[in-house]
């Protein structure tokens, strides 16, 4: 059974979950949105320990969602100063799995 990871990074909380392609949620955790150096390693470890086969990331914005641009996967000029210009998507590259990236609003609609 495929295990799909989902990450929704909102302004106040970050939701991590693992589910099936059919939409069944298998596991879920919430953490507060702190600076990237306070929580990104924890998120990468969480998905790594849950053996996900792919990961969808939705991030607060503004964020780079066009794969053709160098800003893809990066948080842009956000009021959250610790996150400005942080390469969010690249932080998950050590998982070595397929990943998608969009805004938190768009992934909520897709979900």
Question: How would you describe this structure to a colleague?
Answer:
This protein is an alpha/beta fold and about 110 residues long. The protein has helices at about 35-50, 105-110; strands spanning about 5-10, 15-20, 25-30, 55-60, 100-105. Strands 3-2-1-4-5 form a five-stranded mixed sheet. The model has no long low-confidence stretch (mean pLDDT about 95).
The protein's oligomeric status is single chain
Distance between the termini: 19 Å
By helix and strand content, what is the structural category? alpha/beta
Mean pLDDT: 94
Q: Indicate the overall shape.
A: globular
Which stretches are low in confidence, meaning pLDDT under 50 for 5 or more residues running?
none
Number of helical regions: 2
Helix content: 10-25%
Strand content: 25-35%
User: Major beta sheet, specifics?
Assistant: 5 strands, mixed
Helix and strand element order: EEEHEEH
- Overall radius of gyration: 13 Å
State the total count of DSSP E strands: 5
Q: Kindly report the spatial arrangement of strands forming the biggest sheet.
A: 3-2-1-4-5
